[in-house]
Amino acid sequence: MSNGHSITATNETETERVNTSFFQDFLSLIKIGIVNSNLFTTFTGMWLAFQFTDRNFLRELDILFYTLIGSGMIIAGSAAMNNFIDRDIDPVMKSKKGRPTVTGRFSPLAVLITSFSLLIVGEILLFLASTSAGVWGLAGIVSYVVLYSMWSKRKYVSNTIVGSISGAIPPLIGWAAVEPKLGFGALALFLIMFAWQPPHFYALAMKRTEEYRAANIPMLPVVKGFKRTKVSILLWILLLFPLPFLLMELGVIFVVLATALNLGWLYFSIKGFRVKDDIKWATGMFIYSLNYMTILFVAIIIFSIFI
């Protein structure tokens, strides 16, 4: 509707709207939220490696560039491939009906070309950072695309645990770009990320139980129910408690802060067995998990400066 505007102005507005919509569809295709969160953990692994090896990252900005851009591209490419693989089940899931693979904005061929382009260029950049970073990048791609998306997601209730492997690899990529031989700190970051993901995604799965049921995806709350899911969330949170102690080099204050975060999550987890509104509780747990990871990894970056 022009409402008195010239035809030229109207056409420019429509073109601008289409371009913006296309850009938003692209960001949806590559799951930009997942890209950003994983880049944060990649940077943390790289930063920690710089601190532990007494190297100045300002003198190695090329490694910083290759690692972050390369990691971002393989994460985006893997996400696009996941969208390609799931294009048959996404239409029945309300939360995913807006994906460009569902709306038809991106054709299957376009998604494949986009995915492989991002994966190939991303891997080239990671190998420029270091051979080890490139290899761990390949491990991340295989674990997410093959082990999770193509194999376990539709077959096993343990799919979330399998998927947690790929989610824990980004800090290893960051570390390996600086120090090819992974140190104890890299192992600690991997374990923290691995143990954090099940309670994080189980809470999300509870919110979307009916969607996963409609898509015939054997997520834990679909197969075993909410009570069993709450037990699993509790056990995984307990598993997180000793992990900050693997980073004792960051100091006692860091360990105390991490333990406080774990205690808070444990409290909300236990509280879940007495709530009447499971979905509201799951939403709160999901939000807490996001804040937990943000605060913890920011703390790792800050406290590592004082090593």
Structure described in brief:
76% of the residues lie in helices and 0% in strands. The protein is mainly α.
Structure description:
It holds the Pfam family UbiA. It catalyses: heme b + (2E,6E)-farnesyl diphosphate + H2O = Fe(II)-heme o + diphosphate. GO terms for molecular function: protoheme IX farnesyltransferase activity. The chain crosses the membrane at residues 26-51, 63-85, 106-127, 133-151, 156-178, 184-205, 233-266, 286-306. One of its GO terms (cellular component) is plasma membrane. By secondary structure, the chain is mainly α. The chain has two domains: 20-182, Orthogonal Bundle (Tetracycline Repressor, domain 2), CATH 1.10.357; 184-307. It is built from 13 helices and no strands. α2 runs antiparallel to α3. It is flat and about 50 Å long. Mean pLDDT is 93; it is low at 1-20.
Radius of gyration: 21 Å
Shape: flat
> Approximately how much helix is present in the residues?
over 70%
CATH architecture of the largest domain: Orthogonal Bundle
CATH topology annotation of the largest domain: Tetracycline Repressor, domain 2
- Rounded to the nearest angstrom, the distance between the terminal CA atoms is 61 Å
Show unreliable segments: 1-20
The figure for the number of domains is 2
InterPro entries: Protohaem_IX_farnesylTrfase, UbiA_prenyltransferase, UbiA_sf
Pfam families: UbiA
Subunit structure: Interacts with CtaA.
EC number: 2.5.1.141
